[in-house]
Specification:
Strand content: 15-25%
Helix content: 40-55%
Number of strands: 12
Radius of gyration: 20 Å
CATH topology of the largest domain: Rossmann fold
Number of domains: 2
CATH architecture of the largest domain: 3-Layer(aba) Sandwich
Order of helices and strands: EHEHEEEHEHEHEEEEHEHHHHHHHHHHHH
CATH class of the largest domain: Alpha Beta
Shape: globular
Mean pLDDT: 94
Low-confidence stretches: none
Distance between the termini: 28 Å
Strand order of the largest sheet: 5-2-1-6-7-8-11-12
CATH superfamily of the largest domain: NAD(P)-binding Rossmann-like Domain
Length: 375
Amino acid sequence: MSAPERVDVAVLGAGNGGAAAAADLGLRGFRVALCNRSPERLEPFRRLGGVELTGALGDAFVPIARITGDVAEAVAGADVVMLTVPAPGQAYYAEALAGCLRPDQLVVLNASNTGSALHIARLLAERGAPPVPVVELNSLTYICRMASPTRVNLTGPARTVRMATLPVDASPEAVPRVRRYYPQAEPVEHVLVTSFTNLNAVLHPAGMLMNAGWIEHTAGQFYYYYEGTTPAVARAIEALDRERQAVAAAYGVETATFLDFFYRAGYTSRRAWEARSVFEALRDSVPNRYIKAPPNLEGRYIQEDIGFGLVPLHAFAQRADVAVPTVEAFIHLASVATGVPYQRTGLTAERLGIAGASREEVVELARRGPWRSRA
C-alpha cells in the first residue's frame, strides 16, 4: 500500500470553527483534511468537495484535499492535527488519536478551554500515544457561524491569539510550526497562561443565564451580544473576570482584563476600550453584531463554558485557596436551570489530573505535562 498523500493540517471537527479553519487554510494554499465523527455533518462537504466561504475574507469555494469520517485517515501524513471541536467532544478525538499519532506530529487545540491541554495530554498519555506536543490557543482564530450546511460566514479572523506548548521544552520547535498557519499567534510561558485567558468562560455564562427567559421564550430570536448584554449582564461579566484574574495571579500569571483582550483581538472599538466599559464593548462589536442567541440552554455556551470553563477554573482556584463566589454561583445556577450537575460532569480536578495537587505541583504539571519521560 502506498503512503498517504501528505496534508499540512488535519482539521478534526466540521462545525463553525472547523469549517472556517478548513476554508481559510485552504484558501491560503495549504492542503487540508477535514474530519467529523457524525457522517450527516460531513456528507454535504463530501458531496460538494469542499467548503463555501463568505464574509470578511470574501466569497469563495475552497476545495478540501481529504474529507473523511475516519480519524486515522484524516491525520495520516499531516504535519499538524488541529482539534476544532467543543470541549465535550475533545475526549472522543483524544482517544481516537492515541493509536494513530506519529511522534513528529503536533496537536493544536483551536480553541482551548480552561485546562484543555492538560486534559487532552493526560488522555493521550494514559492510552499510550507518543508524547507529541500539545499546543493550546486561548481563543478560536475566527468569529464565524455556519450559514448553510456547506457555507461558513467568517465575520472576522482574530487579530491576535495566545498559544502555549505542553511541555514547555517543545516550544522552540512547535511555535514556528503553528505560526506557519497562524502568524498572529503569540507564544506565552505555559498552558496556565492560555487556560486563564479563556474569555468565553467569562463572557457566555452570564449572558445565557441572565437571559434564560428571553432565550427560551423566543428560541434565541434576538442578537445575543448586542441586545442580550445589558448593563446588569456586563457587571456580571466583569465580576467573573475579576475572579479569573485573581486565580491567575495566585499562580503567578499576569493577565489582562477581558476588555483589553477583546479590544486587542479587534472585536470592539477604541471608544469602548477607552471608556473601560464591557457593556459598550459588546455594543460596539461589529463582528458579533448580528449573531443570534442560542435557541435553548442546551448548547455549548452552557455545556462548554460552564462545564469546561468555570468548573475547571473553580478546581484551579481550590488548589490555590482563592475564593470565587461568582464562579460558584453561576455553576450552581446553571446546574439548577438545566438539571445537569456540572461539578460532577464537567472538567473536574480529577479529569484535569490535579486532584490533591498543590499549587506548585499544578504549575510543574503545566510545564512538563503528564508524561513520565519524553522520547
